[in-house]
Amino acid sequence: MKTSHGFFRLSLITTALTLTLVVLGAWVRLTDAGLGCPDWPGCYGLLDVPNTPEAIAAANEAFPDTPVDVGKGWREMVHRYVAGIVGLLILGMGIYAWRVRRRPGQQWRMPLFLIALVTFQATLGAWTVTWQLKPAVVTAHLLGGLATLSLLWWVTLRTNALGGAGRLAGRPGLSAMMAAGLVVAIAQITLGGWTSTNYAALACNEFPTCSMGDYWPDRADFSEGFVLWRGLGVNYEFGVLDHPARMAIHLVHRAGAIVAALVLGALAWWLWRAGGVGRGIGVALGLVLATQVGIGIGNVVYNLPLSLAVAHNAGAALLMMVLVTAIHLIRPLGRT
Question: Which of 88, 98, 86 is nearest to 7 (CA)?
C-alpha cells in the first residue's frame, strides 16, 4: 500500500538535503573548519560570522584563544544552517506522519524516531564544538549523520512510491549475506571516521606498503591509537596522537578495507545471482565499492587532496544508501 505522494516528496527532499549535509560536514571537517565557530549554536555570540573590523575585534576579545577566521566561520555556519533546515524538515515529517498515522500503509514510528535521532545529532554537534573536536564525539556525529540519511532513505523507499519492496524475498542465504555486509560496512565506516578524526589518513604514506617499504611496521602503537576516551579539556584540532599511534589506526583501517571489499564484493555477486532487480542493485553495489577502494588508494598516493577526501565520505554515504535499497528489495512491505 502506498503512502501519500505528499509524504513521499517530503521524505525524498529531506533525504537529498541530508545527503548534501553529510558531504558538507565532511568538507567542513577536512578544511579544518570544525572549530571555525568556538561556541554553539551561534558564532562568536552571533547568528552569523563576524565580518566587520569592529565585530571581529569584539569577537577576538571575547574568545582570545580562537581568533576569528571568517572563511572557516562561514563554512561552519553554512553547515549549521543546512542542519537546522534538515531538522525542521524531519520534524515536519514526524508531525505529518503522526496526523495521518491511521491511513493504510502510512509509516509513523520511524519518522518519530528520526526526530529523536536528529535531536541527539544536534547534541553531538554542540559537543563537537564545546569538547573541541574530541574524536569519539566527532566519529559518533559522523555515524549519526549516516544513520539519519540511511533511515530517511528507508522511509522514502518504504512509501513504495518507487516500488520494488520484497522483490528479492525468499532468496536462499541472501538475508544472512545482507546482514553480514551491513555489519562490515558500518564497522569500516566507523574505522574511517576514527582515522579521519585522529588525523591518521596519511600516517601511512605509501601504497600498497605503509611506510619505508613495510606492510605492517613494528613501531605502530595499537594500544595508544584506540584509546576511546581521554577526558575533557584537550583541543583535538590537528590531533594529539604521536605518529606510531596514528599509523596503527591507519593500518587497521586498511585491514578493514580488505575485509569490507571481500564481504561486500561477495554480497554484490550474491545480489547479481538473484537475477531481476537484484542484478541492478548488485552492479550498483559493486561500482560504489570499487570507487570507494580506488578513492581510498588515491587519498594515499596523491597526499589526501580535498576533492578525493570529500568524495570518500560521499562514497560511504552512497554505499549505505545502496545497502538500504537492497534491504528494501529483500523485505516485503509488511516487515518494516
Answer: 98
132-172 pLDDT tens trace? 999 999 999 999 999 999 999 999 999 977 778 889 998 88
Please tell me the least confidently modeled range out of 29-38, 155-164, 209-218: 155-164
Q: Are 60 and 68 in contact (CB under 8 A)?
A: yes
Nearest to 250 by CA among 304, 286, 183, 290: 304
User: What pLDDT, on the 0 to 100 scale, is given for residue 335?
Assistant: 53
Does 237 qualify as catalytic in the annotation? no
Q: Residue 33, CB half-sphere, CA atoms under 13 Å: how many?
A: 21
pLDDT score of 277 more than 90: yes
The single residue of 54, 76, 206, 224 carrying the catalytic annotation is 76
Query: Residue 132 region, left (φ>0) first, then alpha (ψ -120 to 50), else beta?
Result: left
Q: Which residues of 73-90 are buried (b: 16+ CB within 10 A; e: fewer)?
A: bbbbbebbebbeebbebb
Q: What pLDDT is stored for residue 304 in this prediction?
A: 95
**Angle ∠(272,183,148) on CA atoms, nearest 5:** 100
Q: What residue has cell string 513521499?
A: 8
Cα-Cα-Cα-Cα dihedral sign, residues 264, 265, 268, 270 = negative
What is the rounded distance in angstroms from the CA atom of residue 272 to the CA atom of residue 171? Answer: 12
The pTM is what? 0.94
Taking the C-alpha atoms of residue 333 and residue 107, their distance in angstroms, rounded to an integer, is 11
